[in-house]
Amino acid sequence: MPRMEITLDSPLDMHLHLRDGDMLRLVAPLSADFAGAVIMPNLVPPVTGAAALQAYSERIDTAMGGIPFTRLMTLFFKSYSAAELESARALPEFFGIKLYPAGITTNSEGGLADMAAAAPTLHLMEDMGIPLLVHGESHGFVMDREAEFLPIYRRLAQRFPKLRICMEHITTTAALHLLEEHENLCATVTLQHLLITLDDVVGGSMQPHLFCKPIAKREEDRAALLRAALSGHPRLMFGSDSAPHPQHKKECCGCAAGVFTAPLALPRLAALFAEHGAADKLQDFVSGNACRLYHLHPVPRRITLRDTPMRIPAAYRSYGQRVVPMHAGETLSWSIVPTAAG
Amino acid sequence: MPRMEITLDSPLDMHLHLRDGDMLRLVAPLSADFAGAVIMPNLVPPVTGAAALQAYSERIDTAMGGIPFTRLMTLFFKSYSAAELESARALPEFFGIKLYPAGITTNSEGGLADMAAAAPTLHLMEDMGIPLLVHGESHGFVMDREAEFLPIYRRLAQRFPKLRICMEHITTTAALHLLEEHENLCATVTLQHLLITLDDVVGGSMQPHLFCKPIAKREEDRAALLRAALSGHPRLMFGSDSAPHPQHKKECCGCAAGVFTAPLALPRLAALFAEHGAADKLQDFVSGNACRLYHLHPVPRRITLRDTPMRIPAAYRSYGQRVVPMHAGETLSWSIVPTAAG
C-alpha cells in the first residue's frame, strides 16, 4: 500500500520548557523527537547568569540520557553588563535572552516592569548579536493582551534595527501583520494555536489541558496563523511552547497555564501540513527558517514521519511525575517511523 | 457601633436551578434566603408537561422541609397545544416557559433548533399571557454568542408585541441597549456577571467555579450591567442562575458550566449595592420589578441584611453531594441577620 512520508532534517523546537528536577528527567527524552530546542529560562529562580545557564544545560544533557540534542540555552532578561553578556556568549550553548513582561506567565514574576530600563542591555545585545525573545502580552483583558503589546514590539524593532527580535508564540492576525513591517522581527507559533480557538478552551466544557498563555483566540486568528505556516512564511518558526505541569496542577481550581505537546508535535504537524498539501513546507517551518535566521547548525538527525496512526497515552509518567499531553487518549493519523537503532 | 442594614420584603430569585434527587435535597434549603424563585425545567428529561411540573414542584416543596417558598415553575419549551398550555396554566405554581436554543447549555439538548417552528406556541402564549424566558445564545464564537442572538430577541419582540419576553442572564452592553428598544422585553442578570469578567475565569489561572454560560465578558460589559442594576432599571431583575454541580464535575477536565451562588447571593448583593450607595435600589432589583412586571405575590418574608462579616464555606455537603460555591472560603462583608425563629 502506498504510504505518505515526510523526511525532516534536524527539526528544531524554537520554544520549549523542560523544567528541572524530576519533571526535567521525565520530559527531556519525551522532547527529543527534535534535534534541538530553544530552552526557556523561567525556572525558580530564573536562569540569570552564565554559570546557572551552563549548569542547567548540563542537567538537560544528563536528563537526555545520551540522546544528542542541541541545547539553545537562554537567559532570563534583566539588566546585564557587557561582561556578563560576554561570559554567557562564551558558552557554546548560549542562544539568546528571553524577556517576560513582569507577572504575565508561569514563573515570570521577576520579569521586566519598565521597558525603558531595558535599553542599555538591549543596546549591548544589538551590538553583540544576541537575539531577544519576547513573551509579548500586556496586563490588559485576556483577549487583548497580545494586540496591546504590539506597539512595544514595533518600538523595539525601530529603536534596535539590528537586534534580532522574536515574537514568541504569536496568536493573532495582528501579530502576523506586524511581522511584515520589520525585517528584524521574526516569530514562533505553537501547535495548539494552529489548531484551536477559545471555543475549544471554554466554549463547551472547560478544558484545562488546552489552557495556555497567550490564550487561544478567534477562528480568524487561528486560520491566519495556519495559512502563514503552510505558506512557508520565511520568518515564522515552530516553537511548541510545550509546557508540562503535574496533572494535579492542571485538573484543579486555579489550573496552571501550559499545554504539553513535545512528544506529539512532529506527527501532528506532519498530519496538518500533509492534509493541506503543504508537506514540502514543513522542513522550513520546523528548522530551515530558524537555521537561516539564527545561523544555527543543530546536531544531524534525520526523522521520517508516515501516515501510520499512533495512539497518544492518557498521561506520561516517571520519577513520580505525571503529565497529561494534548490529544491525550486520542489517535493521531501520523507517527514517526522508528529508526533501526530505536 | 452604628451598623448599616438593608431590609428586604420577599426577595425573589428570577432564575434558579434546583436540580433533582439528592442534589435538590442539598441545595433547596440553601436557596431559601429568597421567598421564592423561578425554577428552571432542564432536568433529565426536561419538564414538558403539567403533571411533571406539578410533581417537580412537590419534590421541591418536600426538599424545602417546611420553609415557605414561592415556586414559580417553568416548562421546557417545545410545541405545545392550547390544551397543554391550559392544563399547565391551571396549576397555581405555573409561571412560564423556558426556551433553550438546542445544545447551548446544561441539559438543553432537547431545546429549539428552528425558531420558525416555535411561532404557533408563541402565539398561544401571547394570547394566554404566559411569559417566555429565553437562554439567548447563538452557536457561534463563545464571546459573540449573546450578541449574535440579539436579532432573534428583536424579531420575537416585534412579532409578539404582547408576549412578555425575558432575556435571561444577560452579559453584555449590547443586550442592555436592546432592552431599551422594546417594552415587552425584560431581563435577568446574575450575581457573577455584576462582579467578574473573562479575566477572572481564564485571565490568570483557570477558575472552574467561575465558569458559566453565557461566559463572563469584558470589563465594559460588567460595568454597564452593574450601572443598570444600581440605577434601578425597571425591567432588570436579579436571577442568580445559581447552578450547582457536584465538585468532581467542576474540578476536572471538561468542567461543567455553572456557578453556585444561591446561599450567598443576598449578602453579596447587599454589600455591592451598599458600597455603591444604592441600598435603596436593591428591593426593586430583587423583587419589586419582578412583582410589577409579572404580577407576582410571593409568600411574605422579611429579611434583614447587615454589614457583619460572614464566612463562605469551602463546600456545602449533604446526601452524598458536595458543591463548591462562588467565594468559597472567603469572607463576605455582609450577612443575613438571623430571625428570632432561626
Largest interface pair: A-B, 26 and 26 residues
Oligomeric category = homodimer
Query: Which strand order does the major sheet of chain A show?
Result: 2-3-4-5-6-7-8-9
- Mean pLDDT score of chain A: 94
What's the tally of helices of chain A? Answer: 12
Secondary-structure class of chain A? alpha/beta
Major β-sheet annotation of chain A? 8 strands, parallel
End-to-end distance of chain A: 24 Å
Radius of gyration of chain A: 19 Å
Q: Spans of chain A with pLDDT under 50 lasting ≥5 residues?
A: none
* Shape by Cα distribution of chain A: globular
Give the tally of β-strands of chain A.
15
The residue fraction in helices of chain A comes out at 25-40%
Strand content of chain A: 15-25%
What is the string of helix and strand elements of chain A? EEHEHEHEHEHEHEHHHEHHHEEEEEE
Describe this structure in words.
- 2 copies of one chain form a homodimer.
- Chain A is of the alpha/beta class and 342 residues long.
- Helices cover 34% and strands 17% of the residues of chain A.
- Chain A has helices at 21-30, 50-64, 82-89, 119-128, 145-159, 173-181, 192-195, 198-203, 219-230, 247-250, 265-275, 282-294; strands at residues 5-9, 12-16, 36-39, 70-76, 94-99, 132-134, 165-167, 185-189, 236-238, 302-306, 310-311, 316-318, 321-323, 331-332, 335-336.
- The first copy, chain A, has an 8-stranded parallel sheet with strand order 2-3-4-5-6-7-8-9. The first copy, chain A, has a 3-stranded antiparallel sheet with strand order 1-10-15, with helices on one face.
- Chain A is globular and about 50 Å long.
- The mean pLDDT of chain A is 94.
